Automatic annotation (TrEMBL), chain A:
Taxonomic path: Bacteria, Pseudomonadati, Bacteroidota, Flavobacteriia, Flavobacteriales
Domain of life: Bacteria
Source organism: Aureibaculum marinum
Gene Ontology CC, one term: membrane
Spans through the membrane: 55-78, 106-126, 155-176, 197-217
Xref: InterPro entries: Cytochrome_b-558, SQR/QFR_C/D
Keywords assigned: Membrane, Transmembrane, Transmembrane helix
NCBIfam families per record: sdhC_b558_fam
Name by which UniProt lists this protein: Succinate dehydrogenase
UniProtKB/TrEMBL annotation, chain B:
Cofactor(s) needed by this chain: [2Fe-2S] cluster; [3Fe-4S] cluster; [4Fe-4S] cluster
Pfam families: Fer2_3, Fer4_8
Protein name as annotated: Succinate dehydrogenase/fumarate reductase iron-sulfur subunit
One example GO MF annotation: 2 iron, 2 sulfur cluster binding
4Fe-4S ferredoxin-type domain segment(s): 151-181
Family named by the database record: Belongs to the succinate dehydrogenase/fumarate reductase iron-sulfur protein family.
Protein's UniProt keywords contain ATP-binding: no
């Protein structure tokens, strides 16, 4: 693995694959969470399935964790290597003349998303692991909706989520089409991929923001 | 035009450089940027000062030798041109202009604004060619039918003059636009397919060994490239590289 990833293009490819995997995961995550807006029962059923199905718990969840960790670690590795490729900095460097802010600051939007993700894990994932595997409390298929509502009661958390998802949107605005370019997909369909990426980068974060605001105003 | 110039001065590759301020007066807006530099150097020589070293050769936008980073951009604020084709009318009277060499670890400064771009030559030597016997028995190029579309794309890639503006403008000092153009110009033609696998593997290996950064698809290289080399070439190189890695 380390031999394969010693090449710059292989690193790009691996980074893009993990990004595409996470882009797909976000669709599933939003699809499940959005049910909480219109059906408490459906959200509980889906959450119960996700939380108890052995395939999800012991196959998909570890793959997701590895994907998330890999994407962040590889992002840092690339950033360090890229910084070292210019040992003397320009006195005057006008990046805005030839590239977007999002594309030049992926590491910073990525760091902000990482900070949010740690809070998100403490908020949801850690209590869930504690409930099921440490305290081993009896399973209650109707607890999920109330747990979700409870989390979005404090205003500070809702504000934090809104900021985090705006940054995720900015990260995706470059990352979506960049992942396709890295795997070598640049052809007559590229303008469609770019348009799809823009819509995805707006709609997916907007969906998560809507869910947070909905539960804050409706608890 | 009267201008203030802030120029990187560095005695040699081992010395520490710094920005030095100069004034030039009565510069014609019809002059090219390099002619303005010539005027400054004449002033310096007349004062018994060391003239500023900068690369130039054809001064027709063909050779790829001129390499100045002007006001924060490779080849200055105009698009689709090299520094020799940049005219002083792109600047305002009284303006302060910063002039720096290409900045990349793989392009070390030799003196003042001159950098060593032999890393590009080593990448070319690693595979940027086709092996053809030219000793009097060469096949007519037209004997091999090539779709017009492929020939055009190959020619577009072949217009890369290897100036290094892609590396200079990339925030990561990545050379992927240059390497991908050199890979693409052969990959698109039947003559180039014969050695395609080894070519892309060897050129990318050499590119990595030279210490260029990783491409993060900002697209700065495509915008600043004087020959308009497309990012499609990088995608093609990525495909070529992955296919070659699987074949090996």
């Amino acid at each position: 693995m380390s031999g394969f990833l010693s090449s710059s293009i292989a690193r790009k490819f691996a980074m893009a694959l993990s990004a595409l995997f996470l882009i797909f995961f976000l669709i599933i995550h939003l699809a499940v969470n959005i049910t909480s807006v219109f059906s408490e029962d459906l959200f509980n059923q889906l959450s119960h399935f996700m939380g108890t199905n052995p395939m999800v718990q012991f196959a998909l969840q570890p793959v997701l964790l590895v994907g998330v960790i890999f994407h962040f670690v590889m992002g840092f590795v690339l950033e360090i290597r890229n910084k070292s490729a210019r040992d003397v900095k320009y006195v005057n460097y006008k990046g805005s003349a030839n590239s977007s802010w999002m594309s030049r600051n992926m590491i910073y939007s990525g760091l902000a998303i990482l900070a949010f993700l740690l809070i998100h894990f403490i908020d949801f994932w850690a209590p869930e692991m504690n409930y099921k595997y440490i305290e081993a409390l009896p399973e209650n298929p109707t607890r999920y909706y109330h747990e979700l509502q409870e989390k979005f009661m404090p205003l500070w958390r809702v504000v934090l989520y809104v900021i985090a998802f705006v940054l995720l949107g900015l990260h995706l605005l470059h990352g979506f089409q960049s992942a396709f370019q890295s795997i070598g997909f640049n052809n007559k369909y590229t303008s469609f991929v770019k348009a799809l990426g823009k819509w995805y980068s707006i709609l997916i974060p907007a969906g998560f923001i809507f869910i947070a605001l909905f539960h804050y105003f409706n608890h | 035009m009267n201008l203030t110039l802030k120029i990187w001065r560095q005695k040699d590759s081992k010395s520490k450089g710094q920005m030095v301020e100069y004034k030039v007066t009565d510069i014609s807006e019809h002059m090219s940027f390099l002619e303005m530099m010539d005027v400054l150097n004449e002033q310096l020589v007349s004062k018994n000062e060391e003239p500023i070293a900068f690369d130039h050769d054809c001064r027709e936008g063909i050779c790829g030798m001129c390499s100045l980073h002007i006001n924060g951009e490779a080849h200055g604020p105009d698009r689709g041109i090299t520094t020799c084709q940049l005219h002083m009318r792109m600047f305002k009277d009284g303006e302060t202009i910063t002039i720096e060499p290409w900045r990349a670890k793989a392009f070390p400064v030799i003196k003042d604004l001159v950098v060593d771009r032999s890393a590009f030559e080593r990448i070319q030597q690693a595979g940027g060619y086709i092996s053809v016997n030219t000793s009097g028995n060469t096949q007519d190029a037209n004997a091999i039918p090539i779709p017009k579309h492929d020939a055009d794309l190959s020619m577009d890639a072949a217009t890369c003059i290897g100036c290094g503006a892609c590396v200079a403008s990339c925030k990561n000092s990545s050379a992927m636009l240059f390497v991908s153009a050199k890979v693409s110009q052969f990959a698109l033609l039947p003559q180039g397919r014969v050695e395609a696998t080894e070519r892309v593997l060897n050129m990318v290996r050499q590119m990595d060994e030279e210490g260029f950064g990783n491409c993060t698809n900002t697209g700065a290289c495509e915008v600043e490239c004087p020959k308009g080399i497309s990012l499609e070439n990088i995608a093609r190189m990525n495909r070529e590289y992955l296919a070659a890695s699987l074949k090996r």
